[in-house]
Amino acid sequence: MSTQSSKIAMTEFTNPNFEVLYTSEEIAARIKELGVRITADYAEKELVLVGVLKGSCIFMADLMRAIDLNLTIDFMAVSSYKDGTRSTGDVEILKDLSNPIRGKHVMVVEDIVDTGLTLSRLLEILESRGAASIRLASFLDKPEPRIKTELKIDYTGFVVPNKFVVGYGLDAAGRYRNLPFIAVVKNPDEL
Ligand code: 5GP
Question: From the CB of 114, is ligand 1 less than 6 Å away?
Fold first, then answer.
């Protein structure tokens, strides 16, 4: 690694524009707890974890290793927040599942539920495909701005305030997914 790139990485991890909400240690401890619960809830069941790209990638990687079951994984990519602002509820499938989910116990793994519109629509689509059950695991829950959808999060990592957060898979214009913590961006104009 060049001196230049290691300097950039250190600068981002200690960027004063980020106010750390949850450290990597706190995240690891919480995911361990979720893993124990999910392992108990799905004993004897055929579980498929469906990660919603790209934001869930890190949560998915950590969560699956905390679940002590014989499971499989798949991924979907859907469009949301097209202009970097609010969700419209219109969902376009950019990448679909690789395998059918009929008869399977599906757990959708998401980075954050904000308005819940994207997820509600995605869950409807998956329900129409005949899964035995569908549950939702979201690393973060931002309940405050939620437009009243019937969305129920079965497994939540942390509840966060109604502020824009980055890190641990969550981005701002494609960046900061690699931050090992969750942070509130103090001045979004300075990113
Ligand atoms: P929803 O349909 O629930 O409003 O939109 C959820 C999606 O919006 C998430 O998957 C995520 O991509 C994006 N999003 C919502 N809130 C935040 C946030 O605070 N930070 C980041 N980085 N993305 C967010």
Answer: yes
